[in-house]
C-alpha cells in the first residue's frame, strides 16, 4: 500500500544516519521493521544494535544482527524509531506498540533521535491519538483517577502486559497544547512508569514520507 511504501522509504532514508562501526539504537513498530530489514544489508559495517522491545530484538536476530544490552553498550550515536503522532517541534506521541518505556530509555541515551514516519503521523497539535501511559499494575485505578483530574479519559489496554510487566492506560480527549508541561505532570503521578509524550526530549531529525518522496525536518 502507499502507506507501507511511505514507511519503507522513510526507514531506508534513516540508513544514511547510521555510522559504520557503531551500535545502533532501534525502536519498535512497523516502520522500524523496514529499518531493521534495511539495516541487515549493512550488518557487516555496524557493531550491532540495542533494542527497545522483544519484538525488535527477535527481528534483529533473525537478520543475524548482534543485539547488545544497553548497560554494556556505552554511547549510542543514533536512535531510530517511529511515532504515532509528531508535531512541527518534533515532539511525539509514542507507545501505540506498547514499547514506550524501553524506547524512551534508549532514546535518552542516544545522541541523535531520528524519527521515521509516513506523513499521516504529522499533526499540528498532539492528542488525537490516545496517549499511552505505562503504569505499575497495582496503581492502575489510582493513576486513572489522577489522569481524569488532568482532563483525560483513561482506558485500560486490556490483555496487554509490557516487556517490563506493567499495564498501559490509553488516555483519550487530552488537549495537549503544552506537551512538555503535561509530560512532567504525568511523570509526577505515583505509579506512572513512563508516558508516551516524547516532548521534553523529542526527535532531532524526522524523515517523513508520502510514498513518493522523503521530507527531512530538523
Ligand atoms: O509504539 C511506538 O512508539 C511505535 O514507534 C509507534 O509509535 C509507531 O508504530 P508504526 O511504525 O507501526 O506506526
From TrEMBL:
Belongs to the ribose 5-phosphate isomerase family. Homodimer. This is Ribose-5-phosphate isomerase A. It comes from the Bacteria. GO terms for molecular function: ribose-5-phosphate isomerase activity. One of its GO terms (biological process) is pentose-phosphate shunt, non-oxidative branch. SUPFAM superfamilies: D-ribose-5-phosphate isomerase (RpiA), lid domain (SSF75445), NagB/RpiA/CoA transferase-like (SSF100950). Catalyzes the reversible conversion of ribose-5-phosphate to ribulose 5-phosphate. It holds the Pfam family Rib_5-P_isom_A. Pathway: Carbohydrate degradation; pentose phosphate pathway; D-ribose 5-phosphate from D-ribulose 5-phosphate (non-oxidative stage): step 1/1. The gene is rpiA. It comes from Aliidiomarina halalkaliphila.
Amino acid at each position: 500500500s502507499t502507506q507501507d511504501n511511505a514507511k519503507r522509504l522513510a526507514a531506508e532514508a534513516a540508513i544514511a544516519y547510521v555510522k559504520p562501526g557503531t551500535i545502533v539504537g532501534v525502536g519498535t513498530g512497523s516502520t522500524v521493521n523496514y529499518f531493521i530489514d534495511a539495516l541487515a544489508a549493512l550488518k557487516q559495517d555496524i557493531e550491532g544494535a540495542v533494542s527497545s522491545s522483544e519484538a525488535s530484538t527477535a527481528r534483529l536476530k533473525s537478520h543475524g544482527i548482534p543485539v547488545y544490552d544497553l548497560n554494556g553498550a556505552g554511547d549510542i550515536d543514533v536512535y531510530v524509531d517511529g511515532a504515532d503522532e509528531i508535531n512541527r517541534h518534533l515532539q511525539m506521541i509514542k507507545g501505540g506498540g506498547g514499547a514506550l518505556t524501553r524506547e524512551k530509555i534508549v532514546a535518552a541515551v542516544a545522541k541523535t533521535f531520528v524519527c521515521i514516519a509516513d506523513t499521516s503521523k504529522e499533526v499540528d497539535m498532539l492528542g488525537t491519538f490516545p496517549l499511552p501511559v505505562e503504569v505499575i499494575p497495582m496503581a492502575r485505578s489510582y493513576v486513572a483517577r489522577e489522569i481524569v483530574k488532568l482532563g483525560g479519559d483513561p482506558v485500560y489496554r486490556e490483555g496487554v502486559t509490557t516487556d517490563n510487566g506493567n499495564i498501559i492506560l490509553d488516555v483519550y480527549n487530552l488537549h495537549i497544547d503544552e506537551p512538555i508541561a503535561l509530560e512532567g505532570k504525568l511523570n509526577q503521578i505515583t505509579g506512572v512508569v513512563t508516558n508516551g509524550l516524547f516532548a521534553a526530549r523529542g526527535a532531532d531529525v524526522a524523515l517523513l514520507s508520502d510514498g513518493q518522496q522523503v521530507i527531512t525536518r530538523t
